[in-house]
Amino acid sequence: MASADLDLAILSFVADNPSSTVTAAAKTLFEPDDVDELRKRDTMLRHRYKNLCYKDLLSSKKSGNRTLYSINKSRVIFCNGVQSIEMGGKKFFGTGVADDYCLVLLLGNTVEVHSLDALDKRW
Asked: Strand locations in 1-123, DSSP E?
């Protein structure tokens, strides 16, 4: 199953804001109007963050009463354009992303290539 746009937005946010919190992401990604909306978005994002940690795309560490998140750089790669990637003797081709800024996710036996340019247009 391909990663959802929101997961890609989270990964992009955490890459731009190392050691950030879920609440910081909720404020930036959703720009909530009030505290109740912030709580709802924060709660929803916590489930997505937990899943991204489970997939080993994010790592977390406790700092006092806060949990700080960072990108697992061995599994999440940001790059300009992807024509092909060779891994484990197999060659994977990026379709339509040769000129885009891309996010490459290494998910066990699967490689996902996502255009962040396309994400910006949808998000």
From this structure: 58-63, 66-71, 76-80, 84-87, 90-93, 101-107, 110-115
